[in-house]
Amino acid sequence: MSNPKFRVALRSEAILTSPRFNKGTAFTKDERDAFGLNGKLPYRINSLDEQCQRAYDQLHSQTTDIGKNSFLQSMKEQNWVLYYTLLTRHLRELVPIIYTPTEAEAIANYSHLFRRSEGLFLTFPNRDSMEQDFLEATKGRDIDLFVSSDAEAILGIGDQGVGISAAKSVIYSLIGGIDPSKAIAVTLDVGTNNETLLNDPLYVGWPHERIRGKEYDDFVDNFVQLVRKHFPHSLLHFEDYGVTNAQRILELYQDAHAVFNDDMLVFFQGTGAVTLACLMAAIGVTKTKLSDQRIIIYGAGSAGLGITKQLRDAMVTSDNIPVEEANDKFWLIDKHGLIKESLPNVRDDLKDFARKDSEWDEFQSSGEVMLLDVVKKVKPTVLIGTSTHPGGFTKEIVETMASGCDRPIIFPLSNPSRLVEVDPKDANDWTKGKALLATGSPFPPAKMPSGKDYIIAECNNALIYPGLGFGSMISKSRKMSDKMIIEGAKALASLSPALKDPDDALLPDFGDAPSVNFEVAVAVAEQAIEEGSAGVDWKKEEVRAKAQEMIWRPVYGEYIYDVNGER
């Protein structure tokens, strides 16, 4: 594949300070002559390989993860191609540095690490000029992706005021193939209730308590309407919104625009989808159907409920069963025990899954029905943990489950790893290697009775959400439908190593995330065309080739100076 050619209007210092077009010491002799760079660069011309080696050596001179994060952020501000090439070549090592978990520390220290502004800041006191500010930041740009955040619920650290969501955009480009020049991170600064930030003289955001109610809703709506008006075929990703806002905002706009949210605290589109894919892979091993499963969800909060709804909707769609019948496949348990109709103060969103009291007459004297009781009676095929109750899946519970099915499917998904319901090594040992396992955090392999390593699948939503987004964008879909997400999950499940070897991992290795997400994107775009929501006139059989053409790859193009070219 030949390198692309670009007509570029920038010269001299301007091109050297453009991260999109800067090549550093990789500018060729002809380009140095044409763009006035001979006196601004040292003599020797380096290849991209040589630049990567130098950058990698410099990176490892940093002794802390936050230092490495800061170094890589500086590189991104200088040279996109070098930045993304380095990340691509060291994907497993560097994603935890630029994303979870190190990015949380970087965001918590954002005001003190601040060097150069990135993205778009829309601030409540400047709401009257929002459209002007929006258009200034997007002028002359073809934006496919907006990643917006009000930074109220950043995982693990909570309210950060102006915590920028740029890391999510990076993952979309790194793993999903989205051109970074067509993506923009947007901070909706509506204040903060973080007293540390409010009292910090270096805090760079609006030092005011968070706006709530109608003022907040109107501010968010103004932003969404600007996206819909000026970039109607873009994807709008909501990131790190608070629990009181995230789900209702998503539901408010999901039928009006292609919107997405993969936060663990709310609708669970991303993590729900990767969990669905993992379960589809597991039932591929057991040669059963989704609707054949008896599923216990241990942890009936937003996370557990989100996964439940995703799995339920997939049963309805894939197995063509009524919603009521699908609801009956689930047993939800919280700290008070099984969710039953007679329990006081059952949340409205749980009522569809509340079990009839008549099913549990033998427990009337004790009142609460706990996890072990449910496992003994239900004989579940699937046990999913979202409780943050470390050790909640005891040896007795796991052994009891294993006695009731040939290949128990056990997903302890709570994060971080210290809060996991069961160490997967123990679950593997207690089931004599029969369990099909996946976790929410990375764990080392377990040993099968044969001595073979059993790779523990990690339900990492980066295995699917970039592909969901890329598929939506290339098809110019008007919405991100449930069927599009389900088809993406099916595509991911089809790549499971366990389908070739039932004792292998349920999900592909994270190092294969770019190729995996490409398959997800193709499936999503094909479904958008199938259901008539796409804004392109492609045929389904054209999608794969079209998607290949549209993938952004970090390579240096050939530059031609043109005063009317790109900037």
UniProtKB/TrEMBL annotation:
InterPro entries: Aminoacid_DH-like_N_sf, Malic_N_dom, Malic_N_dom_sf, Malic_NAD-bd, Malic_OxRdtase, NAD(P)-bd_dom_sf. Its cofactor is Mg(2+); Mn(2+). The active site is at residues 99, 168. Residues 268-529 form the Malic enzyme NAD-binding domain. A divalent metal cation binds at residues 239-240, 263. GO terms for molecular function: malate dehydrogenase (decarboxylating) (NAD+) activity; metal ion binding; NAD binding. (S)-malate binds at residues 415, 460. GO terms for cellular component: cytosol; mitochondrion. This is Malic enzyme. It comes from Rhodocollybia butyracea.
